[in-house]
Write the structure tokens for this entry.
Amino acid sequence: MDQTALATFQTLGDIQSAISKASSMDDALRSSLKVIQEKLSADYAVIWYFDAKGDQLLHPVFWIGPNDLTATSHAVGEGAVGRSYQDQKAIRSLWFENDPDPVTQADFEGLEVRSAVCTPFSSIHENFGVIQVVNKGEDARFTEDDADIIEIMSMTVARALDENEGRFSAWEHGPTIMELRGITREFQNGDSISKILRGINLDVYEGEFLVLLGESGCGKSTLLNIIGGMDKATSGEFRCLGQDLSNADAKTLTEFRRRNIGFIFQSYNLMPNLNASQNLALIADLVDDPMPVEEALESVGLASRAKSYPSRLSGGQQQRISIARALIKRPKIILADEPTAALDYTTSIEVLTTLEKAIAAGTTMIMVTHNEEISRMANRVVRLRGGKLHEVTVNRHPVSASELVW
Ligand SMILES: Nc1ncnc2c1ncn2[C@@H]1O[C@H](COP(=O)(O)OP(=O)(O)OP(=O)(O)O)[C@@H](O)[C@H]1O
Ligand SMILES: [Mg+2]
């Protein structure tokens, strides 16, 4: 067997094995898409699904790539995806010499599309959607073999969906509360500049629970600090709650943070010389319409510890006080940076249950964590890599804190 045929064979084997190891249909789709994206080092790999019961549009169910496609959709017949779906024929734009296909270009606003493959997937009963892979890395040229692999994957996926009666519909999310466009952050280190964030594009929706994952040092805390108005981006646009904060001065950012954002950190940062209720009162004094201190303590299950000083409280209790301190402002948005990293399993679940209640009450939450298990609670999971978004996953079946195990 020649080398390319062997590589093709191996990729197909990897896809099969990813599907057979998967714990759910979602997992199977996601992991087989990952295999394709990694083997081809593609800029984007997307599974578009036709919402037959809903709005009759193609929506992304899984994707890997540097832009947030959550709110993107294609009409049947529109763009390469819509056409491939309509005609039930693969579009193999293996390489555009000087002439990018406007049909494919239209799918990815702002991205230079050098090559793309779109493959419809369908069963004998119905047409499901399209798998799209854009811009092969390095040699940047898809081969016919690559396109064959994507077509075979689409058949495998369709069969698996058919057998499991897997059905997707568009994710119903709230209105956009936050928009990040091309956010960069550079730090001066002596003579050199380190580029930590290299163009983050993300929308956040009202009421969602968004988990931010990524390797240590990839810029998660940096991003969270920019979102919370504690740090400023080097460049890019940032809009939040209808306010354009891209070029806001320090005073405006402080005011924005005070009114709208609740912070929770890994270290609880409580004032050691103030008791629980005094710690809360300190923050309540800063805002117009705070929650009564007793109510905030009640909401984290610690009404009885109002008079306790931080040193008399366990780590989990201190963290719950710090959650109460965030909640007392009735913030629209809570930003949590590894809130359970210092806690054991049982205490972590208590803390997460407390946060879960705040989300259920309508607070938007963005949480940085190293704990993959926690991401099962989220509506969306965002992975950062190399200073950019790497993957955004919509979690169709978020679980409650009490179901997590680690
Ligand atoms: N004020 C600063 N000055 C210089 N470099 C900084 C500054 N803040 C952060 N960095 C650098 O930016 C990079 C990203 O830091 P950040 O704290 O955002 O990472 P992280 O993803 O939160 O990591 P971890 O998971 O370990 O908390 C690191 O290399 C860090 O050293
Ligand atoms: Mg961090």
